[in-house]
Amino acid sequence: MDILERKRAGFTVTEVKSTLGVKEQHLPDVAVQTHVVRAAGLEVKRGEVMHLNRECRHPDLSNLFVRKNVTAEVRPLLKGVPSKLKAIHQVLEGPLPEAEIGARCHGPYPCPFQGRCWPKLPEHHVSTLYRISSKKAAKVTAAGHHTLLELPDDLKASGPAKRQLLSAREGRMIVEDGLAEALSKLEPPLAFLDFETVMPAVPAWPGCGPYEQVPVQLSCHVLTRGALVHHAWLADGSSDPREPFAKALLAACEAANTLVAYNACFEVQRIDQLARALPRLAPALKKLRKRVVDLLPMVRDHVY
Q1: Could you say which of 65, 109, 125, 235 is the most buried, measured as most Cβ atoms within 10 Å of its Cβ?
Q2: Phi and psi of 3, rounded to 5°?
Q3: What pTM, to 2 d.p., does this model score?
Q4: Which residues does 211 contact at the CB level (< 8 Å), separation at least 6?
Q5: What are phi and psi of 91, to 5 degrees?
Q6: Rounded to whole angstroms, how far apart are CA atoms 56 and 273?
């Protein structure tokens, strides 16, 4: 039990989760615990899930948790608990069960036995095809096509998927003619950015909420006339890292006209967060943000 409370009308069973909301897989937890408490002779009147409150902001942690009444949702599950417990005991008492692998091995949580049960996939397995759904990959595999090299020629593919198939079949890197033109639009000097963040469940710095991504490490390579200079910053200690990070970022990028990042929406979102948290530095951060260019679409649309 996470929390068991005695109330005037009976007991309340509360399952505590580190999520930001109630999920379907939480309900069986409450059902099993309610079943056990009732079997121990206590009258349970209410079932709850307690989870982190996305509206909570440091330093006021008085509303860190939200308690959600799930009594109505759990009630129909309680009827099936005894039979499921019986089935589980039968599994434990019998031989190692033969179970088909599939999508259920991944959800709602990854099974820890995947490394033992799942065979090693061959190179260029169909599941690696760009943006192919798991359902489509299973259908193609069931038809006897296990690798990209075995796929029928009439399979519809465009853009990155088409380049991927060509690359696998010809065994070479595919580079489209437009790559040089796309890269030529990047105005030098160039700064290549990469951020790392932490996401404390319990917010640790003013204005932060649960699981808010806070930048704690910066890497910036500045390319000017063939010379490459590396700037780095790493948080040290438990003090708020945002202002020193922002100052290090502004200093590192001062000489660059274009800031390059790969999948740049991550870096852009962090810069926006810093601008909101640090009003004094907001004008400079907003100017810096306008110079960020995403390298991902350039690579995705031209190279495999």
Answers
A1: 235
A2: -140, 130
A3: 0.85
A4: 20, 52, 199, 200, 201
A5: -65, -45
A6: 16
